[in-house]
Design goal:
single chain; about 425 residues; Creatine Amidinohydrolase; six-stranded mixed β-sheet; three-stranded antiparallel β-sheet; 13 helices; about 35% helix
């Protein structure tokens, strides 16, 4: 791992919170992610299952966790299974975690080799009535790949049909919404690295550079500062490409007079930052570009001011969309009369603002939690209004990461340059 060690008190606390939420006489099983084939004999870089990391801090492949909190034997209430290493494996892949190292990272005293997994599970199933299964549950994401947890669930149902099979996702999704102090510190680190990458970009961008060169500058700074890399596929979208919401080709030349929209964030200790900025390729906003940019900044500041306890993301989005409607009218995109005559099911603002205002952030860039959850202290979410005018080849998005507090909110990315004068000043001083 590239990040500094994290106290296992965090993972112990997370497991205790989970145990308090499950039914008596239950067993919880969480497996690591698959190693995904890339080509030939190569895998894509491994990324741990977020729920397993949340409960153990273990970042190694072929890992499993079993919790059986009501078992008579204290040694069998928490069991971590890891891959057994050997000299041949370590020659090719390097050192794997030892049992002692796994105990230190996770705070779990009972660590066994993975080849003991089936026999231990069989013995524990005799002692329990319910089994919580860690199925992936994301209503907006349905990959064609049959992931390990789904395969495992099908095997369990066939082998233990008389047990009550329960969903773990609703329990962990709720717990992961509220960040522990250690998690907030890790996210602050991810935000700091993201800030440094943006400052690097401000000194690099000029007419003629390729979008992928900007991506390379970001990647360089991320890795240099101990990040595992990008928390998601970065968007570097110049000119008309900025009107493509999930543009990730990043293969065009940045032209004089264009804007370039950046949507990027570092991942640190598996926790994500998520930032969007839009800057002029030549270091100066045109009059029209600044007009759109300042409108976006006003909406951003309004949105940020109302992100606090008691509101939901859906209600936030409604208020921000109404704010955009006023700004669109000022920008001359449509008239107040046209608003009065619009189809209420297809509002005029939606042509220029077609994505949401916010999403939760944490171990995943789009973290657990739905848009009707009432915000509470300890939640972290993005604030990202934008405007997209295809006719003028202008797309602008501004995005920061906001921590809800008891008294309002804290902007974890508040020191990343966002004011147009500051951006121009930095770009022209390099």
């Amino acid at each position: 791992m590239r990040y500094l060690p994290v106290s296992n008190k965090l993972y112990k606390r997370n497991r205790q919170k989970l145990i308090k939420k499950i039914e008596k006489n239950s067993l919880v099983v969480v497996n690591s992610n698959d190693q995904m084939p890339r080509s030939g004999d190569q895998y894509f870089p491994f990324r741990q299952n977020s729920n397993l990391f949340y409960l153990t801090g273990i970042n190694q492949e072929k890992t499993a966790l079993i919790l059986c909190p009501d078992h008579d034997s204290k040694d069998l209430r928490e069991i971590l299974f890891i891959r057994k290493s050997d000299s041949k494996l370590e020659i090719w892949e390097g050192k794997k975690l030892t049992k002692d190292e796994s105990k230190e990272i996770s705070g779990i005293n009972t660590v066994k080799w993975l080849d003991e997994y089936d026999s231990v599970l069989s013995g524990l199933m005799v002692k329990t009535d319910n089994i919580y299964i860690n199925l992936p549950e994301n209503p907006k994401f349905n990959p064609e790949v049959v992931v390990r947890e789904l395969r495992f669930a099908n095997e369990l149902k066939n082998k233990y049909p008389a047990h009550c099979h329960k969903r773990l996702a609703p329990v962990l999704n709720e717990l992961r919404l509220i960040k522990e102090p250690e998690e907030i510190d890790l996210m602050k680190k991810a935000c700091y690295i993201t800030k440094e990458a943006f400052n690097r970009v401000l000194g690099f961008v000029k007419p003629g550079v390729m979008e992928y060169e900007i991506e390379a500058e970001i990647t360089h700074e991320f890795l240099k500062r101990g990040s595992d890399g990008h928390a998601f596929q970065p968007i570097v979208a110049s000119g008309k490409n900025a009107c493509i919401l999930h543009y990730i080709k990043n293969n065009q030349k940045c032209k004089n007079g264009d804007l370039v929209l950046l949507d990027f964030g570092a991942e640190y200790a598996n926790y994500a930052a998520d930032c969007s900025r839009t800057i002029p390729v030549n270091g100066r906003f045109s009059t029209r570009q600044r007009e759109f940019y300042e409108a976006t900044l006003r909406v951003f500041k309004f949105a940020k001011s109302i992100i606090k306890k008691g509101i939901t993301i859906n209600k936030l989005h409604k208020k921000v969309s109404e704010c955009w409607e006023e700004e669109h009218i000022k920008l001359g995109l449509y008239t107040r009369k046209e608003v009065r005559n619009q189809d209420k099911n297809v509002p005029l603002w939606a042509k220029y603002y077609m994505h949401g205002t916010s999403h939760f952030l944490g171990l995943d860039a789009h973290d657990t939690g739905n848009k009707d959850v009432v915000l509470r202290a300890g939640m972290v979410l993005t604030c990202e209004p934008g405007i997209y005018i295809q006719e003028e080849k202008i797309g602008i998005r501004l995005e920061n990461d906001i921590l809800i507090t008891d008294t309002g909110n804290t902007d974890l990315t508040g020191d990343i340059p966002i004011e147009p004068d500051e951006i121009e000043s930095i770009m022209n001083s390099k």
